[in-house]
């Protein structure tokens, strides 16, 4: 488990150099006192491990830019992939405040060793496009949700794909969550495309998406709390980490049949293989039993498939929401 005595830790993602696991994570000082304030002070930390259990913190990966930059408020969630030429790419969310509210865009940094990162001069490389995605101008949501880039190679070898937390242009405000999509021939130039899912499945946003093939079947992993769901979907649940069936790594995704893997005690789950090749789920500890925010990353929990469902060993069954709460 990764816990920091002086900082909250939350969203995270992995890279594997063949020798060690690298963990990149969002963190902010507990001196802020108010956990929600962490979002506007987030930096990207870095730790390494041989077993996904014992972590050694190393030099931070990224911090926000100076005032006026596209990421001058905070650096948020992303993913790391390696180009065939050996260059590591860290894609991340840049957040900035505008007079209309919080705007999120996507950029990247590169590294030869996973330790020292250089932000790309052409950042940001992607921003929400009103043809397909909701923007602040639509006045439906508390921010311009366009974040959490998950990058993967095309299954047929045609470039690279990016999945994003985004919102569609139609439907009730609490039911517009979609899987955003972009494509690149080389990881540097990006073309935004229409979303890979439709709104209307009960989620206001699908956060921290990831796609993997587990025991021979593709699955979409995402997180959502009850406060960001439609009234019908949030009945009886606090939200948490979810898994939805998929026909391929690029969809279609059956978000209507999303299975809840955890309750709100855990969030932003990630699937990763350990050194034996077994799939593991890690998540960050979100809600304590008294409802306070925790802010630490769990130990790995084994994952396997039973029929069309994922089973996570060591995770308590999701708890029901108390009657009358939101």
Automatic annotation (TrEMBL):
GO terms for biological process: carbohydrate metabolic process. One of its GO terms (molecular function) is hydrolase activity, hydrolyzing O-glycosyl compounds. Keywords: Glycosidase, Hydrolase. CDD domains: GH32-like (cd18609). Residues 19-284 form the Glycosyl hydrolase family 32 N-terminal domain. It holds the Pfam family Glyco_hydro_32N. The keyword Hydrolase applies. Belongs to the glycosyl hydrolase 32 family. This is Beta-fructofuranosidase.
């Amino acid at each position: 488990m990764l816990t920091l005595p002086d900082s909250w830790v939350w969203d995270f993602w992995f890279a594997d150099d063949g020798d060690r696991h690298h963990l990149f994570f969002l963190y902010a000082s507990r001196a802020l006192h108010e956990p929600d304030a962490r979002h506007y002070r987030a930096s990207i930390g870095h730790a390494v491990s041989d077993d996904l259990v014992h972590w050694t913190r190393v030099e931070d990966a990224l911090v926000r830019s100076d005032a006026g930059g596209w990421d001058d408020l905070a650096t948020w969630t992303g993913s790391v992939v390696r180009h065939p030429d050996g260059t590591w790419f860290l894609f991340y969310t840049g957040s900035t405040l505008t007079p209309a509210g919080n705007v999120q865009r996507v950029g990247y940094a590169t590294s030869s060793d996973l330790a020292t990162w250089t932000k790309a001069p052409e950042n940001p490389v992607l921003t929400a496009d009103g043809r397909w995605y909701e923007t602040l101008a639509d006045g439906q949501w508390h921010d311009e949700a366009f974040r959490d880039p998950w990058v993967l190679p095309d299954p047929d070898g045609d470039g690279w794909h990016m999945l994003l937390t985004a919102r569609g242009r139609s439907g009730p405000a609490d039911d517009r969550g979609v899987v955003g999509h972009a494509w690149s021939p080389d990881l540097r130039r990006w073309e935004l495309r229409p979303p890979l899912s439709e709104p209307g499945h009960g989620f206001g946003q699908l956060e921290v998406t990831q796609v993997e093939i587990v025991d021979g079947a593709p699955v979409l992993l995402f997180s959502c709390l009850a406060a960001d769901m439609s009234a019908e979907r949030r009945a009886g649940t606090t939200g948490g980490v979810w898994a939805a069936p998929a026909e391929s790594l690029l969809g279609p995704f059956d978000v209507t049949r999303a299975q809840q893997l955890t309750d709100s005690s855990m969030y932003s789950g990630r699937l990763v293989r350990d050194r034996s090749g077994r799939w593991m789920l890690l998540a960050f500890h979100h809600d304590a039993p008294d409802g306070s925010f925790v802010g630490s990353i769990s130990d790995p929990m084994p994952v396997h498939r039973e029929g069309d469902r994922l089973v996570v060993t060591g995770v308590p069954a999701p708890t029901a929401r108390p009657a009358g709460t939101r």
